[in-house]
Design a protein that fits this description.
This protein has about 300 residues and is an alpha+beta fold. Helix content is about 25%, strand content about 25%. The N and C termini lie far apart (about 60 Å).
Length: about 300
């Protein structure tokens, strides 16, 4: 029997998906050692320790907030998410999220397919990633967009400023991504992860850096950030995946000043969801939206254009 199924049977008050999350996050021990694969096969005589963290209060009250809405009708919204805004509540961000703002804005309600903590959320962007995302107001719309995501027909185009230059200049990264058992807030490429596919193309080249177009075939957590870092081109100013300086950076004062200026002007990871396109699940209309990168992206880009000097 799979470990997640076994523990779900032994702890019926916990859902299998929640138990799987606990396993991946290193909260299950076998003879004192972490087991991080939900598919681990249970053997006769195994004795497991399952640590269930104490519940953390999460605020799902409506919080009025200025939203940058690119499109809205009775069924969905397309929103421009700024850097620093968390999409849905979590123990580390119990309030002040996009979901709290949506609950104040959508007085007639949001879809409930994603659960009580993520009403309306069909897909998400990382806290410091900017750009477009779609929100569903009803379950029919949510299911329709989710089906398009699963079929890989949703158009998702990202712009990224990365250190170094990828070789080749365009390519397809097909590498599974899963949670890092040693650092639960990080993801990594692992054979135990879920399939993840990113297509990239170099748009411009600079001293020590590049601007890329990235198109997603899948939507894993931190996908572009992990994939770009895996080929030696971390997203600029991404502190979690090596984006604070390029690998092999020259040890000159000019290079240090250049890199420092770019990271300072960026302020957060330089990843922007520029284009979002899909078929409206209710009307059947083909919709496509484009959003220019924020000011800090342009400032970092300008400094890259100036070069080492």
């Amino acid at each position: 029997m799979r470990l997640d199924s076994f523990l779900a049977m032994k702890a019926p008050s916990l859902s299998r998906s929640y138990i799987s999350t606990l396993i991946v996050n290193g909260r299950v021990l076998l003879l004192g050692r972490q087991v991080t694969k939900p598919s681990h096969r249970v053997r006769p005589g195994d004795c497991f320790e399952l640590e269930v963290p104490d519940p953390v209060g999460i605020d799902l009250s409506p919080e009025p907030m200025d939203l940058d809405i690119a499109y809205e009708d009775d069924h969905l919204l397309v929103i421009f998410k700024p850097a620093g805004l968390v999409v849905h509540p979590s123990p580390s961000s119990p309030g002040g999220t996009l979901v709290n703002a949506l609950l104040a804005h959508c007085i007639d309600g949001l879809s409930g397919i994603s659960g009580e903590l993520r009403p309306g959320i069909v897909h998400r962007l990382d806290k410091d990633t900017t750009g477009l995302l779609v929100v569903a107001k009803d379950d029919r719309t949510h299911a329709g967009i989710s089906a398009q995501l699963a079929a890989r027909t949703v158009k998702r185009r990202y712009l990224a400023l990365v250190w170094n230059r990828p070789v080749p200049a365009s390519g397809r990264i097909d590498a599974p991504i899963g949670r890092d058992p040693g650092q639960r807030k990080l993801m990594r490429i692992t054979s135990a992860g879920r399939r993840a596919v990113t297509n990239y193309r170099v748009m411009r080249e600079f001293d020590l850096a590049s601007m890329l177009e990235c198109r997603l075939e899948t939507g894993r957590t931190h996908q572009i950030r992990v994939h770009m870092a895996s080929i030696g081109c971390p997203v600029i100013a991404d502190s979690r995946y090596g984006g604070m300086r390029p690998r092999g950076m020259p040890s000159t004062a000019a290079a240090r000043a250049y890199v420092s200026d770019v990271v300072r002007l960026a302020g957060h990871q330089m990843l922007h969801a520029e284009t979002l396109g899909f078929v409206h699940p209710v009307t059947g209309e083909e919709l496509e939206f484009n959003a220019a990168p924020p000011l800090e992206f342009h400032l970092a880009l300008k400094r890259l254009e100036e070069g080492l000097g």
